[in-house]
Design goal:
Layout (H helix, E strand, L loop, with lengths): L1 E5 L4 H12 L3 E6 L7 H13 L3 E4 L5 H10 L4 E4 L8 H4 L1 H22 L3 E7 L23 H20 L3 E6 L2 E2 L8 H11 L2 E4 L6 E2 L2 E2 H11 L14 E6 L5 E2 H12 L4 E4 L15 H4 L10 E6 L4 E6 L8 E3 L9
Parallel strand pairs: 1-2, 1-4, 2-3, 4-5, 5-6, 6-11, 7-10, 8-13
Antiparallel strand pairs: 9-12, 14-15, 15-16
The chain binds nicotinamide-adenine-dinucleotide.
Nicotinamide-adenine-dinucleotide binds next to helix 1, helix 5 and strand 5.
Amino acid sequence: MKVLLTGAAGFIGFHLAKSLISYGYDVVGLDNINDYYDTNLKKNRLNILNSIGMSFVKGDLSNTELVNSIFNNTKLDYVIHLAAQAGVRYSIDNPFEYISSNIVGFQNIIEGCRIKGVKHFLYASSSSVYGLNTKIPFSENDVTDSPASLYAATKKSNELVAFTYSHLYGLPSTGLRFFTVYGPWGRPDMAYYKFVKNIITGDYINVFGNGKMYRDFTYIDDVVNAILKLIPVIPKIHGLGSVQTEIYNIGNKKPHSLEYFIETIEAKLNITAKKKYKDMQSGDVFSTAADNKKLKKITDETLLKNRKEVNINGNGTTGYVIKEGPQKGKVLKHIQIPTKNI
Ligand SMILES: NC(=O)c1ccc[n+]([C@@H]2O[C@H](COP(=O)([O-])OP(=O)(O)OC[C@H]3O[C@@H](n4cnc5c(N)ncnc54)[C@H](O)[C@@H]3O)[C@@H](O)[C@H]2O)c1
């Protein structure tokens, strides 16, 4: 099974690529390794992925010719589109980055999927599409017509385009609304990295919303497992427009306050943070919390059973063997990633 994974050098893409390969998928990664954050981190992630057999194309999603050449030269079963300009606050000062990557780039990818008729197109959306909604927890059935940032508006637009492509051309698609994903090898622009760094160096941390904002945090392994489960779940034809498209919240319905978040870091580091309390920034929302009932109903684990644990060379090194598909019989060692990112 061949998969095009965009954003493979990114945080979620890195962890997903690693798991996809370990379950026997043949992964082609695409990323422009942009400098939104430290490119060494992205390169180090890629080194690990290259060492376990991922093919990689360095390039920009907004380059139509390049994207077309990938679709023309590779027979793809699935496309998992994670590459995007992320970040809510950055979109206030850099609007065109979002139009180029999240709108033009998305269009190039979905067009490739349509023309080549991929089995299933999965793409990253975001909890930010719930925008100014106040009903908690957020459900996939809620109206999402009030995005609070350009970032959120581009993600909502992706969902609408995916709907139209399913209605007009029968392209099966699944939108993944991620809720604040965290974990090792994570994004240095996110609060947990910035706070830890500043607390250790004795710098002030900015506590926006005066610490009263709430976020639903989702551990990276849970996100990866959710995506692995959803890949073979091709949406059924349903509803208005007879579409084959679905949207899932990928979150856990247990929001924590920013205050609690900081207290936890302080306790782990055994250092009291120097805090500057500030009002909420424009583009931010007060709270996120995922109703995840829909995701919990997904039980298709066929592909997850495609590997068998083995002892390699009988010397106690553990690994696994791929049972079916193009990589059948391939033996892979368990991949140990260093806990330190760079
Ligand atoms: N991490 C989260 O908490 C979170 C929450 C909601 C949604 N998301 C979405 O999930 C996806 C992955 O997020 P992430 O946290 O891994 O972010 P990330 O920034 O670590 O990864 C995105 C990757 O896409 C690449 N990229 C960006 N623009 C590109 C372009 N024009 N052409 C080619 N490559 C490009 C970047 O170089 C980066 O490696 C994104 O679409 C993001 O919007 C993430």
